[in-house]
Amino acid sequence: MIRYIVRRVLFLIPVLVGVAFCVFTLLYLTPGDPARMVLGDLATESALQEFRAKEGLDQPYLVQFGNYLYKAVFHGDIGRSYVTKRPVMSEILVAFPYTLKLAAFAMVIAILVGVPCGILSAIKQYSIFDTLTMIFAMIGLSMPVFWLGLLLIILFSVHLRWLPSSGFDTFQAMILPSVALAAQSISMVTRMTRSSMLEVIRADYIRTARSKGQKESIVIWVHALRNALIPVVTLCGLQFGHLLSGAILTESIFAIPGVGRLMVDAIKTRDYPMVQGGVLFVAVAFSIVNLLVDLLYAYIDPRIKAQYR
Question: How many CB atoms lie within 10 A of CB 63?
Fold first, then answer.
């Protein structure tokens, strides 16, 4: 198990280097002058040249990228923000708890709603409940997050006045953005749980358990569900990583000071170090989530634990 963890951690190195290369290259080729965006249109040419020299923007592409990697790997420095003049990592660490809390609440909602609905749909296949569940799942997959978020604000904040439309400091303020972000994940978890359960409940060992007189609840929740959880856990892990990186629209709509909104503001001002640092941080978080999901397999399926050994 330890050897597997070490190998997966080592695999992160080329992944992060590739992510850094792609982001750095895209930002380098993006039209626009960061010095002009930061200093404004009234800045003199000498001030612009001084800013470019100070930030290393007047150097060739390979030199800039090499310096960035050297500082990131050997000094843990992923740059300073052009706008706030603070270290990028400090800015991200302040904003990341909001993004993590939002993604965690959305994932909990998706699991608590999606898994039971998927199980009941599989048990009651082709029933009215199954049909309605699949219809709502398709609707949830089809609704963009920004559109659903605006509808929730109009209904629950403007008309009913039940919940606040912005902020993320109270439990009431967390409900609307979490539901808006979780809508698509609920649909995907429901559909995956249903399809996985349908495959399992037709297996021979399920018929054997029923023939031995086991209660239907034990057959479903103990024998069938545990064997059907592997693809569901995989999907939940991928969705949680997606929620961490895909909360940009939700944070912008509900005015949540998370990493997504921080990156949007950085893109508007051509704050290249902040954009690069945010993307790298999200890539690391996504990779760690995938590693934890792989390790969780061993506790769900003993056969996978035997492979690790």
Answer: 11
Nearest 5°: the CA angle 72, 75, 76 is 50
Round to whole Å and give the CA distance between 118 and 194: 4
Rounded CA separation 253/145 (Å): 9
Quick one: tokens of 87?
């270290």
Cβ–Cβ under 8 Å, residues 175 and 163 = yes
DSSP 13-36: HHHHHHHHHHHHHHHHHSSS-HHH
* Cα separation, 42 vs 63, whole angstroms: 29
Percent of the chain with pLDDT over 90: 5
Tell me how far apart the alpha carbons of residues 141 and 238 are, in angstroms, rounded to a whole number.
16
Please, which residues have CB within 8 angstroms of residue 229's CB and are 6 or more apart in sequence? 196, 300
> Rounded to an integer, what distance in angstroms lies between the CA atom of residue 80 and that of residue 114?
42
Distance CA 130, CA 123 (A): 9
Residue 179: which of 108, 122, 263, 94 has the closest Cα?
108
pLDDT in tens, 214-250: 777 777 777 777 778 878 888 888 888 778 776 777 8
Rg of the Cα trace of the chain? 24
pLDDT for 215 equals: 78
Q: At 247, is the secondary structure helix, strand, or coil?
A: coil
DSSP 84: T
- Cα 118 off chain centre by: 22
Nearest to 181 by CA among 208, 226, 147: 147
Report pTM: 0.79
